[in-house]
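Researcher: Re-running this chain for the archive, since the previous output was lost when a drive failed. Same request as before.
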Amino acid sequence: MNKSVKLNPAWSLFVDMLRVLLTYPQWLAAAIISTIVVAALEPSLAWMGKKVVDDFKKGDIEINSSLVNYIVVFGGLLLGLGLIKLGDKIIDKIFETRLIICLQRTYLQRREKERDAEDISHILYHCNRAKPGLDIIHKDSWKIISQTISVVIWQLTLAPAWLPALLIAVIPPILIGFIFGQFIQKASLKMLTAQENIAASTTEAKKLELIEHQESFFRHTIHLEMFKSGTEILMDLLTWFGLLVLVLLSSAFHIGVVPKEIQAGDLVLFWGNLNLLSKPLGNIVKVYNKAREAYPALLRVLRPTIAANHQIQQEV
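Model: Regenerated structure tokens:
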């Protein structure tokens, strides 16, 4: 192995993650392609909404007949997107299940010795907690990139005057969202430790210890969910708060970020694309937090010799 890989635990772990993903290269390629296709086509609904509003605003079309046509087009668009998303979910589920199996086999190959209860905990729980870390490479990163590029291109093509406002509105949540990562990792690590203790306390003689470890697992699970959900709620609120501040500043100081003449169709497109763009850019923070959550489990599965909690903390 390259010397730089040995000296860099994070890079070494990343290489190991790539090896697991490349165990099934066909499914990896299929998962990446389906993710990109779904992300690229999602903004088409916002485009269709803009077209409908603009056509009706012109007033030179017959409402009843046009309404039927638009309903048919919308239905076809939703059906097509639905089928594509269904295929994407099936491909993801197949690939994710295979990844869990590969993680289980990797752990069994790399463990120093058989440890019964600890092995069961790693196989049934730790591997499932480690798998989302692999999702970052084969799914989340591609989805963020393709969604962001797709939304920006659609916005530039159909209503470029709104693009500055669109980008500015989603920046504050990204900066705030990174705060919770360290707390998420600590809660995840404590959950794994509690789960190992539960697996090792199933005898009648350790009944009281089992209850104590179960309560510990319960507490840390709730803590983890609070940090994750709190991040998502805060980011959603900040997105719309940032938009409100942007509109107020533009109205008061005429900074030119929001167009002076607002077309109804452009506003509908902006509204739809704000939702779409806030997702991939907000997902940057969510992916970061997902990595922090999965890191302890990845170490315990791919680096089973590193078991002490202080060792895990030092490598962050």
